[in-house]
Amino acid sequence: MVTIKKDFLDVNPFSRPGTKLGKVKGVVIHWYGNPGSRAQANRNYWNSLKDGRGVYASAHYCIDQDGSVVQALPESELAYQVGSPKGYTQNALNKLSSYPNNCTIGIENAHPDAAGKFYDKDYSTCIELAADILKRNGLTHNDLWRHSDIVGKAYKDCPRYYTNNESEWILLKEAVRLKMAGGTASKPANPTYTVPPFSQAIGSIQTKMEMNLRKGPGVNYAVTKVVKKGTGLSAFESKNGWYRVSSGEWISGGDKYIYFNKKSDKPVVPSPVVPKKQYVYFPPKKGKWSVYPTSKPAQKQYAKGQINPDKFGGLTYPVLKDHGGWVFEISTDSFGRVKVYCHPDTGAITSWNGPGKWPNVQK
């Protein structure tokens, strides 16, 4: 049961205009964008906007690290959650409205670091709360939106982790679907499975489009993974128009979705992964980059210093570990092994094919 504290914002032009919300057409998932932020603090920030500083922002619900919820606006009122000076995606215009704030309910989520993956308790609450709102408004899990789905990823990568990791977003939506059907709010888990020898395969598969893999042979089973168009798989069993692949997961066998060769003498064996060295380049005249201890999140309060590429005409580092969400681990002469946030918006440039002609490659 979700614990909700109602602490509505004061009516004001910048965060609670008091405008009546139209028919609800979707639920929008956000991240705070401020690692470690708490629900009450986020609500209080929105309320402080009434001082007239010119910032418009709010959402209906704020979820805390512990899974509790602060409700900042009644569901019957409009929130300033998906405004965009750059306009909206065509999909949002087609399915929502020309101004999606007027028909959506927003949920903000807490996360420990810049990668943006929600806290576990937040995640569970988000699923339960979203499922409840959707169900009450006669909607389905397909009416769940990321902020980035509405305004475009180039403008807002919110919620970052679930925008940058499509398969995680699909799993979240699937968890909401299961919750609406009476299931649990936890993440779908992959069962332990022994991979059979390829000699036992009954045929080979190639996907015609991006496809879901599921825990069982049917759409009522949870999505476990998403594979890209052109993915090669070996099939080991056929059931109700579905094929079991080497991982034990199932894929739809419809001609619309896959090519299937049941006469194959040589089942598809996955190509070996050839590791490519990842590098990150910090160009001059783009500012400085803060570095963080490897044991801490990439958050401002943990910064232990800065890289200043201006002194060297640019600096290039091999990436020792990719923590996700553009947080990379590198080794520096001054600070040793550290984390650094390298999103393209910061000016950093990443390569998965070596440093090329970048200058000052560090060892």
UniProtKB/TrEMBL annotation:
Catalytic activity: Hydrolyzes the link between N-acetylmuramoyl residues and L-amino acid residues in certain cell-wall glycopeptides
Keywords: Cell wall biogenesis/degradation, Hydrolase
Positions of the N-acetylmuramoyl-L-alanine amidase domain: 12-160
GO molecular function: N-acetylmuramoyl-L-alanine amidase activity
Protein EC: 3.5.1.28
Pfam entry (one): Amidase_2
InterPro entries: Amidase/PGRP_sf, Amidase_domain, NAMLAA_amidase_2, SH3-like_bac-type
EC supergroup of this enzyme: hydrolase
Keyword Protein biosynthesis: no
Any one of the GO BP annotations: cell wall organization
Coiled coil: none
PANTHER family according to UniProt: N-ACETYLMURAMOYL-L-ALANINE AMIDASE AMID
Name recorded for this polypeptide: N-acetylmuramoyl-L-alanine amidase
Lineage of origin: Bacteria, Bacillati, Bacillota, Bacilli, Bacillales
